[in-house]
Amino acid sequence: MTTATATEGVKHELKVVKNATCTFCGCVCDDIELHADAVRIVETKRACILGEAWFKNHTAERLYPDALIDGREATVDEAVEAAAEFLHKANMPLIYGLSNTTCEAQREAVWLAELVGCVIDSHTSL
Ligand code: SF4
Fold it and tell me: Any residues with CB less than 8 A from the CB of 97 and at least 6 apart, and which?
């Protein structure tokens, strides 16, 4: 569904997505209504404050390169190679983070942790 709105004299076409799923905290609310223009989500009906912040901070803008190695832009293949090298050389490798990460990616992270002998932890340990 699309609607139109005017902000500061500029007319935007809004796309409305009903029953969107929020994957931020794990509750997985699936009744969120999102309103988005061509670049960003501008309204999040029924999302809590965390979900609203999560949705509104994701844009279609390309803010970052696909990968960084030591702060320098790199291809994904180069980054995967560098990560493999870091993990191979590490004495006590740790896979950490995984918030806002899909179940599929978490499954791969656990598989990698078992393969390399890593400790795995999420941000919730903070
Ligand atoms: S809307 Fe809020 S409670 Fe629901 S999944 Fe997102 S962060 Fe969690």
Answer: 122, 123
